[in-house]
Design brief:
With 375 residues, the chain is α/β, with parallel strands linked by helices. It has a domain at 48-65 and 104-124 and 131-157 and 196-267 and 304-367. It is 47% helix and 11% strand. It has helices at 2-34, 70-81, 93-110, 132-144, 176-201, 235-238, 245-266, 285-290, 298-307, 311-314, 316-323, 326-329, 353-367; strands at residues 61-65, 85-90, 121-126, 153-156, 207-212, 272-278, 336-338, 342-344. An eight-stranded mixed sheet has the order 3-2-1-4-5-6-7-8, with helices on both faces. Strand 4 (153-156), helix 5 (176-201) and strand 5 form a beta-alpha-beta unit. The longest helix is centred in the first third of the chain and has 33 residues, at 2-34. The radius of gyration is 20 Å and the shape is globular. The two termini are 32 Å apart. Bound molecules: NADP nicotinamide-adenine-dinucleotide phosphate and 2-acetamido-2-deoxy-beta-D-glucopyranose (NAG) (2 copies). One 2-acetamido-2-deoxy-beta-D-glucopyranose (NAG) binds next to helix 5 and helix 7. The site of NADP nicotinamide-adenine-dinucleotide phosphate (NAP) has 28 residues, from helix 2 and helix 8.
Length: 375
């Protein structure tokens, strides 16, 4: 029933991409190169919500995975600037130090936040989510930290580098993209729940669980001959070799969207909000890795720069989800957000609660050691 709609949905997008590539982008590049200032219509600040509206986060604790990445660093800057203690999950202390230097520089540049509130601090914990064991270890390391007495925001932003054509499995025998993007971070969350629940019971505003998904979740809907529809019936299905790398990426992002919806409904009696979101199309390492030719061609790099948003804006929607009081006032838990801090309706699959339960059960069984994948 949804097949025809899904494909129709896809074609206006293809049309838009064509228009952008062949008409809008060259025009913007021309303007970009002649204008005395950076002219980027898409970068106009959001009127909907801005980081100046972040509430006082003094006393709150946040945990961020993939914290040294493009979106991660910008997110940490604003959380710290508004008073939070931010545990930055990075794969090595060296990466953390480098990110911390950038954060200090940005904090100096931006100055204090609204009403001169005191800034918080960044802390390091080692966090690699490429296997279940490592992800669980990361949660344990965090929980053992003497300053991890509460957890107000769990922000899952880590993303594996593109595997271009190859389709590696994680140590646990599941598609590596699915593992890093979703399952292993759910394993972390599973360990963190007790602390989040405890925190939420003594907190006026809700605790937040945030998954950085992507609007590419939509592509996971495509059925044969365009795609292989996800069922989450088994790991064999998730790992299906007929799924291209992009389709696997989409599948993992769909799983995150489903997860946010499922957890939100499971946690509806708790003071905890859970959201998934698309951060926007961002000009950072992430995109450059996906489109390696941008590194070699100045012209193409300029097109990308002209039409995409930067990491600072890419962090906006996640910061809204993680801190804004509107999330409680408007009961946004379980919704899917997109740049700039706007609610949108995700694909029909991402709204399918039966599929959501299957995806959740499949992953939780693995996390709790009940069904090991056979490959
Ligand atoms: N950029 C976009 O246009 C866009 C669009 C939609 C969605 N997203 C999503 O936004 C998220 C953040 O992207 P970004 O733009 O900030 O990209 P990025 O700069 O590449 O950041 C990715 C982060 O994830 C970390 N990471 C990768 N593999 C990991 C692992 N196995 N364990 C722990 N950490 C790992 C990286 O750490 P290392 O430095 O150690 O590799 C890095 O800190 C991603 O989940 C991506 O899917 C981005
Ligand atoms: C922020 O909150 C803390 C703790 O509740 C409080 O001590 C501080 O005065 C607040 N700062 C501002 C500027 O309101
Ligand atoms: C998901 O996997 C893709 C491909 O490996 C990667 O590019 C992306 O950053 C990952 N996203 C997340 C949230 O882990």
């Amino acid at each position: 029933m949804t097949t025809a709609i899904d494909i129709l949905w896809a074609s206006p997008w293809l049309l838009c991409i064509g228009l952008v590539l062949f008409v809008v982008a060259p025009a913007l590049v021309a303007i970009e190169q002649t204008a005395p200032y950076s002219f980027k219509p898409y970068r106009w600040p959001s009127k909907i919500w801005s980081v100046d509206e972040i509430p006082n986060l003094t006393g709150k604790v946040a945990l961020v995975t993939g914290a040294n990445g493009g979106i991660g660093v910008e997110t940490c800057v604003e959380l710290v600037r508004n008073g939070a203690q931010v545990f930055m999950g990075c794969r090595s202390e060296e990466k953390f130090q480098k990110a911390r230097n950038t954060i200090d520089k940005l904090l100096d540049e931006r100055g204090p936040a609204r009403d001169n509130r005191k800034k918080g601090q960044v802390l390091y914990f080692e966090c690699d989510v490429s296997s279940l064991a490592l992800a669980k270890k990361a949660a344990t390391v965090f929980l053992a930290h003497p300053q991890a007495k509460r957890l107000d925001v769990a922000y899952f932003c880590a993303g594996a580098p593109s595997t271009w054509g190859a389709r590696p499995l994680s140590e646990d025998g599941i598609d590596l993209i699915m593992a890093t993007n979703c399952t292993n971070q759910l394993a972390m969350l599973d360990e963190l729940y007790p602390l989040i629940k405890k925190t939420s019971r003594h907190s006026a505003s809700s605790c937040r669980i945030i998954f950085i998904s992507s609007n590419t979740e939509f592509w996971a809907n495509l059925r044969w001959p365009l795609g292989v529809e996800p069922t989450f019936n088994s790991w064999k299905d998730v790992n299906d070799p007929r799924r291209s790398e992009n389709a696997r990426y989409a599948q993992s992002k769909l799983a995150q969207a489903l997860l946010a919806r499922k957890l939100s409904s499971d946690l509806s009696n708790e003071n905890i909000a859970c959201l998934a979101l698309h951060p926007g199309e961002i000009d950072n390492d992430f995109v450059h890795r996906m489109l390696p030719w941008t590194q070699y061609n100045r012209y193409l790099a300029a097109i990308i720069k002209a039409i995409l948003i930067d990491s600072r804006q890419g962090a906006l929607t996640g910061l809204f989800a993680a801190t804004a009081k509107e999330v409680d006032e408007k009961r946004l838990s379980g919704q899917f957000l997109t740049y700039p801090a706007t609610i949108i309706q995700p694909s029909a699959f991402a709204r399918n609660d039966v599929l959501g339960r299957k995806a959740w059960e499949l992953q939780m069984d693995l996390i709790q050691g009940r069904n090991l994948p056979r490959c």
